[in-house]
Amino acid sequence: xxxxxxxxxxxxxxxxxxxxxxxxxxxxxxxxxxxxxxxxxxxxxxxxxxxxxxxxxxxxxxxxxxxxxxxxxxxxxxxxxxxxxxxxxxxxxxxxxxxxxxxxxxxxxxxxxxxxxxxxxxxxxxxxxxxxxxxxxxxxxxxxxxxxxxxxxxxxxxxxxxxxxxxxxxxxxxxxxxxxxxxxxxxxxxxxxxxxxxxxxxxxxxxxxxxxxxxxxxxxxxxxxxxxxxxxxxxxxxxxxxxxxxxxxxxxxxxxxxxxxxxxxxxxxxxxxxxxxxxxxxxxxxxxxxxxxxxxxxxxxxxxxxxxxx
Amino acid sequence: xxxxxxxxxxxxxxxxxxxxxxxxxxxxxxxxxxxxxxxxxxxxxxxxxxxxxxxxxxxxxxxxxxxxxxxxxxxxxxxxxxxxxxxxxxxxxxxxxxxxxxxxxxxxxxxxxxxxxxxxxxxxxxxxxxxxxxxxxxxxxxxxxxxxxxxxxxxxxxxxxxxxxxxxxxxxxxxxxxxxxxxxxxxxxxxxxxxxxxxxxxxxxxxxxxxxxxxxxxxxxxxxxxxxxxxxxxxxxxxxxxxxxxxxxxxxxxxxxxxxxxxxxxxxxxxxxxxxxxxxxxxxxxxxxxxxxxxxxxxxxxxxxxxxxxxxxxxxxxxxxxxxxxxxxxxxxxxxxxxxxxxxxxxxxxxxxxxxxxxxxxxxxxxxxxxxxxxxxxxxxxxxxxxxxxxxxxxxxxxxxxxxxxxxxxxxxxxxxxxxxxxxxxxxxxxxxxxxxxxxxxxxxxxxxxxxxxxxxxxxxxxxxxxxxxxxxxxxxxxxxxxxxxxxxxxxxxxxxxxxxxxxxxxxxxxxxxxxxxxxxxxxxxxxxxxxxxxxxxxxxxxxxxxxxxxxxx
Lengths: 310, 554
Known about the structure:
The complex is a heterodimer of chains A (310) and B (554). Chain A has 13 helices and no strands. Helices cover 80% and strands 0% of the residues of chain A. In chain B, 50% of the residues are buried. In chain B, strands 1, 10, 11, 12, 13, 14, 15, 16, 17, 18 and 19 form an eleven-stranded mixed beta sheet that branches. A four-stranded antiparallel beta sheet of chain B has the order 4-5-9-8, with helices on one face.
């Protein structure tokens, strides 16, 4: 088992190197940080002096190498405006994780029962209802949904705050988490439904039923357990998507997480902050994938057996 | 099954209707023509003033007022700013040496109380400062008293080429040969250039730093020590979400004039969300509300105050490689005649009160600004006549590459349509905004460009950088004219501030006659507040809105 985990961690290293280089390279194309810092009024000589002072005249690969050397020592750098990248990130990540966890919890709570119900009543009303809800979730843009919920619950009904966390984190969490969960539950509901349909049609369940096992036990103990693998994959995928893709959601709701940090940093051309954040998000997303794989191994005895040498 | 689907559709429709639908009062938002006539947001309305009445002693005010903007300050350093938020927040914590009265085009005393042109040649200025100016520390306690040393230090640290190497330096430092301290409260500035408007260089962004703090702390911490009426309360601040500014009880100008104890800034990156949050009443003031939300905000009982800002959008020419025509001034005049600014604004602003027509390369907040009519009013026939005189006609059209970035796509399209009437085919060249200046500097691949400039500060500051042959935008547009250089030199050496203003008025007219740059529109600043909020001090000069006096009666 540990061999499996170690192998997955080792596979992360080249991924991170490639991703970090791409991010670093792309950010180097996104404008001249020296010009940004010096403003419109600076002369070319002042800009050039700043560029030199910032080491921006050196080859990209040299700058990247130096950056990564610092990163492996835990130094993600200082932003163009004097903020420590790691410190900023650690200040914001709890909010992003809180939002992601709440969204996933809501998604799982709503979509797994809905998917199971759809599978159990295939072709009937509840199945169509689940499909319609899933389709709505998949189709609706998250920023639009967020703003509609905001107008409804904050502006019209005045029961929830429109943005920020000033009126209490839990109360403020409801709208962004619901928006995220509604859009995420489409994929999860459809996945649960199809996995359950596959599992429910399996021969061993016929055997179980023939042996007189109750339908509740057949569904929840035998079918669901076997249908879990793709569902776990979807949850892992959602975790990564929500961590990295929270930019839109956090911006709409002024939620002070990583997404908002990235947006505000991009607006001020702070390439150091953006690069650092994207890199850390990549690491976290990769860890999300790793956790999914490990969970796989726990749920699927075949993987466990493959690495235990049995 | 059908019932179920119908029910589901009905639920979704109800949800959308409730969420999208507005009150009947909001209907004006759907009528661009009407909403282009601002109601409470009349330009220059009563609220938009630099003069604010002091709070009433008998009125009880809310202890905390919330305000929001779409970007947050980088930190508390007034010289490391990146956005409007930095200027607005450091206006609270740091007092400038002088105050700009943009309405009357005057510099008013503040920390600096008197300034005298010692020899009458604009090159030696004696400056006296107020006694008893106090700095606050990071806990809101009195840190020390300001002296002439602090003023000298501010220029030496934050000036161009100063020790601080700051992002947005005080440019006037380059014109200073020496800063002489006469006594604790008097200094003499020895300049290498005649600056009859010297006091204007002490306004706005010229915020006093504390020398002793720099001796004691690191630069970032030290730069946060200011002499403003509020201090940045880090204990109550959460970067990325909210910044709390608490009243400095030891403020030298009298803390009793500042009725609000805590001014809490909230970061709301999305404009629509910010406007909706103002509508809910969770914030008392929103800087830079979207023009399209004005009608709905006013319908919800909020007040929107609009004034022309400092951002001038213009049509520029590539003087490094301008089109090879017999008479390039005539070509520029033809373009000026062919561009219907109202039509461009109608397309760009979609009928909303987002900006005003600009007929002067200077903006209203520049001291000495002169109101003038459009020198080359929209006249297609006249423009065609000029073009025909240059040898162009329907069979021989001129090809112009117009560089612009995404924000100006609509203007580019409007200009393309307008100029096609006068035998000019515009080829839009879309450039990424962050690389736009670099692209222009390259001098190749474009003939004309759409851009904007935030203007303000001293009289010749912006004209010098755009129009003088040694100006800082020379590498971008390359405008160079010995005639202009001479006119500017004459005005600056004219012997008095009034003569300088007269010279500047002539120059403004000359620039428009020469179509050196073709201004199109000045963007409005729209500030949204609750109806109860008082004391808003709007100063569009580089968006130096002063929020220190805002208050909300309980």
